[in-house]
Design a protein that fits this description.
heterotrimer, B: mainly beta, Ubiquitin-like (UB roll), five-stranded mixed sheet, about 10% helix, about 30% strand, C: alpha/beta, FAD/NAD(P)-binding domain, five-stranded parallel sheet, 15 helices, 22 strands, about 30% helix
Amino acid sequence: MSDRWDVVVVGAGIVGAACALECASRGLRTAIVEGRGIGGGATAAGMGHIVVMDDSPAQMALTHYSQTLWQELSDRLPRDVEYEPCGTLWVASDEEEMQEVHRKSALYATAGIATAILDSQMLADAEPHLRKPLAGALLVPSDAVLYPPCAAGYLLREALRLGARLYAPRTVLSAQAGKARLDDGSELQAARIVHACGADAAELLPGLPIRKRKGHLVITDRYPGFVRHQLVELGYLKSAHSLTADSVAFNVQPRRTGQVLIGSSRQYNTEGPAVDAQILSSMIERAQWYLPEIGALSAIRAWTGFRAATPDKLPLIGPWPEDDSLFLATGHEGLGITTSLGTARILVDHLLGEQTKIPIEPYLPSRFARSEAHA
Amino acid sequence: MPDPVRSLALRVNGVPLTVAPGTTVAAAIMMAGAPARRSVSGEPRGPLCGMGICFECRATVDGTPHQRSCQILCAEGMDVRTS
Amino acid sequence: MSEHFDILVVGAGPAGIAAAVSAAAAGKRVGLADDNPAPGGQIWRSGTFQPAAARRWLARLNAAPLVRLQGWRIFDSPQRGTLRAERNSDCRDLCYEQLILATGARERFLPFPGWTLPNVMGAGGLDAMVRGGLPIAGKRVVVAGTGPLLLAVAAHLARRGAKVVAVCEQAPLRRIVPLTAALLGEPAKLLQGIAYGVAARGARFFTGCWPIAVNGREKLESVTLQRNRKHWDVGCDYLACGFHLVPNLELPALLGCRIENGFVVADDLQRTSVADVFCAGEPTGIGGVELALLEGQVAGLAAAGRTAEAEKLARRRKRQGFVHALRTASVLDPQLGKLASDTTIVCRCEDVPFAALREHANWRDAKLHTRCGMGPCQGRICGTAAEFLFGWSAASVQSSIRPPVFPALVSSLGASAKETCQSDGLPSAGASTGSQKEIL
């Protein structure tokens, strides 16, 4: 006994949910399969930022495009999604980092993204709990934060409302050649199968260039107004870009609840979910350097999660060259919440043979198939 | 009349209150007739467990928020605020 | 800052005191950490009497050559052989060769309409508040729920001048009196006398009876009680209501101790599944004061290497026929799980109503999508309730226990573990051998 679908989406994290909604809203008969909870993987573990990043032109194109999609959606997001357009402050600790503020500002301007440059005093006024003096900051007012599990829940509910069908809790044992085999013995037939299972994607599709990159987060009790914007250090670029070493960076968010979310850390080669005392310590030390009073807040929870990291820090979006029926929507590393909507839109545009709003080529999985062929 | 040796003076939401030594801040808040806190949706709440695990008796004690008032003894001159 | 102990005991209730005193008597360097203002645990603070056993053990504790860490709350184990503790804004690492966990138990609370109103408290909760200075003389109190605390609390409040209007025990009295006797370490006959004493002061006893609603606006004004199919309102100033006890398992779970059927697994010598970690008292089974004292002594002696003496004591346990008292599940009437209405708050930290939880399949999903258990109590109240209401197994522990197991200052959580066991040059049983790269 098997059901026939236009698209079967594997994984109901925020990327899978967004893909299912996009498919359903374009009139495709859509099924979505999730083995654990809705938004229970990296979606639940992440910080939930909707942020433009400019590591590479392709990264900037996708994050910017996605952000505009979030903005279009923001009026309809239910309250529990906790969408908060708080903006990001890229904090410069010295003059060298101030150069980066100017560079970023110019770059964002070319993309049509408004920013403001804050000097030392303006930064101190904007965020009184930051250490003084700091050199300044770049304010990106269009950035936002939200609560990812409920965002995934909302996208999924919308997909179901438009006729998609959820199979959960069902684990996909194999998915290839237009067939997804589930753990209850049933089989779903589909013209297209979309892999959206984040860091676990490589388990279903050995050979995918995805590694797990572990992260830690800490959340405090409610201290409304302690910080007002998402705060990110500009040293973030240096540390997060290091592909091999463990690293921590200062990234703090105000949540709508008044809680303060403290990040971030990046580690390869650790599979266990346990909280690592040394990483946690380094991460908090870093946060305390920027926000000397944060140490006096009450921490109520710490947790870890795994990002799906690719070698070039860009996601895998589009057909898998070795199987005509397979499409990928994974490898978003730390940007899955932001880029979920853009990913879904260009994936489905491409799948339907339509023109994508931004070029899909930089994200096509075939870029790795090619490099492997040459290896 | 309060015995200066055997009583402590503190303020709960600005209102003076005299208690016996050994009195917890949670008990003082209840004597003052105030709920310890408003919940996240605005409901009045008071102590529940009395042993520091339920966090219902949280109050701001001498400027520090989120203090479990059932685990803190009153001290002379203490300033207690409930939300 | 760090301190080193041969044997570290966590919890200064009967089991912890007995363990610490026994280990210190064996010549070991012993630390006793406890998060309350004074030793004795909940039971010797909130018991009706100051029983002879309590006076005897507290005197022994005062005479024992050990380090008292009173008011320190353990919230993390940053590496093997180390627990991290906080008091106010101070933070310390406590290093040990052997660890004895005597973390005790807490009341179970179940939601029903109005249970979040001020002046609705736990039975032990109101008792603790009264001991903390809350005037109770002349106040009308209804004591309700189930379990060994109710009778003891009713008696204590009555002696303090409270007008105990009603004592409502959900379970049959014949099941509860032996339990109460075991919990307090007092003969059942004496307790029956106390029950009569409370009754003589005007309290009415009901069995098979429980509260179904609390009425009032800013605080409790009356409680609606139900027995058989009848219900009626009783005006009162306080409702003291708890549903038996549940063990505090967060720390054993963090350390990886095996937990089965809601209790820590321990052998005859109180050894857990984790090397060098012992557990005594209520976390291994709700068994009351006498059993806790015995288990504490066994653990203290065994940890100190006095195995023969420990074994001898452990045999006494069998000879005297101690049995762990009834498990909660066998005590609670299933109807208690149906008292909450759709709008009744289950998670008091985040104000999550019953209806929002019902649609979820398990604790983790409910937590992620409703914020239930995401507040500072870390699910100690709502997770325990959800276990009973929805059958979500071990909601409060095991599924995802991580540091901090109790809220702690960000600075305490982030304190570097550098200046601990190894760097002091002292041997540590389980010092981490991981070669974590230093960052920044």
